[in-house]
Amino acid sequence: MEYTIDLQKFYCDPYPDLAIIQSIAPVVYVPQLDAALITRRSDIFKQEKRVDLFSSCQPDGLMVQLMGENMMRKDGAEHQEARQKIFPSLSPRTVKQVWRAEFERSTRVVIEGLKKKKAFDLVRDFAMPVSGAALVAITGLRQMTPGQMDKVSQAMIDGCSNYLGTPSVTQACDVATADIDAHIALMVPELTDSPDTSVLSVLIQAGQSLANIKANIKLVISGGQNEPRDAIAGTAAALLMQRNALAKVLHSGDWGQAFMEYARWMSPIGMSPRRISQDCIVLGHDFKKNDKVFFMFGAANRDPAVFATPETYDIDRNTGPAIPFGSGPHFCAGAAVSRVLIAEVALPQLFKAFPDLELVDHVKWGGWAFRGPVSVKVSRGPS
User: Fold this and answer.
1) For 362, which DSSP code?
2) Cα–Cα distance for residue pair 324/338, rounded to 1 Å
3) For the chain, how many structural domains are there in total?
């Protein structure tokens, strides 16, 4: 089966097309993406684990070309070994014992700055510096500013989803990766002499090659900035759009539920690419070796066979079946970081400091491989 999309409309709102694709067949080829899309939740949950057929090893893929071969582009034992090397920095214990205090401190600094303003943008003025500061600490690239971190992350995300091959996007990504390499070089001597729990330090201590270190630092930056940034601002926007939901969360204190329902409703990670390792027939589709496949998490998390009224942000929903972080061996390594930063620090601090926030404009959204609000303009109380 084949389905044609308008890439501009797909960027603005992929969900109408994804709903149609989901209804057509388990696997649908989209020529504009040159990929077969798997969109149904049950299919993704099962097939993502079949790494023998759906390989993450993509030597010709955009991510490898632009960022180097990181752990997300490895399978089996190689992937597990790479995850184990980085785990000491991103483990739930490290997040709780080390990074949470850092998140709280840097978030307070951002909020103090916002107290001087009557109106601001939750994406640009709150979520971006909060997630950027967190990532500066976690990566160990302490000579970067949060703004620089956001800029290089966005350039890499744009590069990795540049399926049209726009030269200016590739060039911006190349500039960003060179900037990251320079910051890594600045910090390697210091962290070699004085190790800590940052990703760069942990990988140095694990004896990783410089090429592996660079590739995996870029991986952490590419996912560790835009996803929490978008989820912080997006969850806040969803709650401000539904005041009853906000009242419930303020009463219960269950910011984790608010975040997880947002991650289902407007999946920050909308897609994960794979390469077919051999000719095969799966879900009735005739795959050829090296075909591109996209697991569409955004579609799976709105699968009407699993979720009632999936297009609605529902704070009372059971989000257990959702797979916003994936469901296979490539489950997001930064999930624990995201939960603590977003649900335990950023959102509670934001609404405690500004209990009278109001939206002053329609929320603008963008993206399909990675999706979130473009801007969330708010004011502190009635105008």
Assistant:
1) P
2) 12
3) 1
The CA angle 124-129-135, to the nearest 5 degrees, is: 135
Structural domain of 367 = 7-380
Q: What pLDDT does residue 382 have? A: 58
pLDDT reading at 71 higher than 80:
no
Q: Dump strand ranges (E) for the chain.
A: 27-30, 35-38, 54-55, 119-121, 272-276, 280-282, 285-287, 292-295, 357-359, 364-366, 372-375, 377-380
Q: Is the whole-model pTM more than 0.90?
A: yes
Provide DSSP, 81-119: HHHHHHHHHHSHHHIIIIIHHHHHHHHHHHHHHHTT-SE
In this structure, the number of other CB atoms found within 10 A of the CB of residue 178 comes to 10
Query: Distance (Å, rounded) from C-alpha 152 to C-alpha 191?
Result: 22
In a domain, 188, yes or no: yes
Quickly state the pLDDT bin for 383 (edges 50, 70, 90): very low
Return d(Cα 296, Cα 316) in angstroms, integer. 24
d(CA 157, CA 45): 24
- Cβ contacts of 320 within 8 Å, gap of 6 or more: none
Note the pLDDT tens digit of each residue in 77-86: 887 888 889 9
Tell me the two tokens of residue 106.
């840097």
Residue 1 lies in a domain: no
- Mean local confidence (pLDDT), 253-272: 96
Best CA proximity match to 53, nearest among 215, 283, 270:
283
Average pLDDT, the chain: 93
Answer yes or no: is 141 within a domain: yes
* C-alpha span between 202 and 193 (Å, rounded): 12
The domain that holds 104 is classified in CATH as: 1.10.630.10
How many whole angstroms separate alpha carbon 173 and alpha carbon 157? 8
Classify residue 2: in a domain, yes or no: no
Residue with tokens 């335990």: 344
Structure tokens, 113: 């700055």
